[in-house]
Amino acid sequence: xxxxxxxxxSTDDPKLRRVLLITARADHGGGPRHILDLLTxxxxxxxxxxxxxxxxxxxxEPYAPQFKELAKSFIEIxxxxxxxxxxxxxxxxxxxxxxxxxxxxxxxxxxxxxLLGFLSGVPVIHTFHGIHRDxxxxxxxxxxxxxxxxRFSFTPVFVSENEQQEALKFGxxxxxxxxxxxENAVDLSRFTAIRTPAFSDTTRPxxxxxxxxxxLAKGPDRFLRLARESAKESATFSSWTCAxxxxxELEKFGQVPGALSITGxxxxxxxxxxxxxxxxxxxxxxxxPLGVLEAMAAGCVCILSDIPAHSEFKNRGAALxxxxxxxxxxxxxxxxxxTNPARRADLLTAAHRLLQERHSLENFREKLQAVYARF
Length: 375
Prior knowledge:
The chain has 2 domains: 16-185 and 360-372, Glycogen Phosphorylase B (Rossmann fold, 3-Layer(aba) Sandwich); 189-358, Glycogen Phosphorylase B (Rossmann fold, 3-Layer(aba) Sandwich), CATH 3.40.50.2000. It contains 14 helices and 13 strands. The chain has helices at 30-43, 63-70, 84-96, 107-120, 137-149, 161-169, 220-231, 247-251, 269-273, 290-297, 311-315, 327-338, 341-358, 361-372, and strands at residues 16-23, 50-57, 73-76, 101-105, 124-127, 155-158, 180-181, 207-211, 239-243, 261-264, 278-281, 301-305, 320-322. The strands form 2 sheets. The protein has a 7-stranded parallel β-sheet, with helices on both faces. The chain has a 6-stranded parallel β-sheet with strand order 10-9-8-11-12-13, with helices on both faces. Strand 9 (239-243), helix 8 (247-251) and strand 10 (261-264) form a beta-alpha-beta unit. The two termini are 31 Å apart.
């Protein structure tokens, strides 16, 4: 069902820029969180040109209610599925509200946006949120769809330079299309609670945690193996937890240790992250992972899989990387950190500096405003 929370036609104010945001998800995930941060960032600012946001998204928890509060209007669309009737209703909405820019997030939304741009002539901006290279049949189909959609006229936005390079490498954008890099941001005001410092008591088991999804790209199979094998090394590695995935979903990727705490969907990621000593990523592929940025904001020590998307964190001294296929590599890093408080302090300080310099809401808004200003 398509719903519109406002029936009034937008005015012709020349100082008003109307943007339709589209996402095929409003459940727990980095993409919907990114959109909420976008809306929050613009709601806290004013400029010569006011930006009025409309949003098309599934009516899902936890983000749809928040989208409705911050956007001018909310249009309900199906979750992760395409509907021709919805496409034409969106087209009617674009024309009726005189939308200036259509900005989609993720592949499903990008399918709608590119077709809307073709049919309406309205400029399209598309943020990828990861270039998927899963070798499975479904993964190849998804990559082919990205390659097909690259033929349409649109301006790409990437969440990292690495994502930009991968999009060009795999043909998800045309070679002459440079696009823009607008890094993910973190609303640091969500992380104001005072927490017990990570590694504050190395005589007890440390608490390790990860955000997971039922997708090989996120490495749930690697995470399970890491939790099982590291627990055999010492009591230090006996406390593991994960969020964002159910036990039934996780069991499809391997044996689930009995001691593993599976949190499922977490309504308050900040509070959950602040309970961890170490945030772990075993991902095979990422854009620029918002979960890692949130973990840094929460004061976790971050130990991440050695993939291109995580390389900037290492280069800035904000995280450690390890070979996620070798559990002993992870164990070695943790044991080293236990006996080296200065190294731990350096990691946390560098992470805080990185968030302030590159991933604040203010920087995010300024960069995106510059992209919008081109239209």
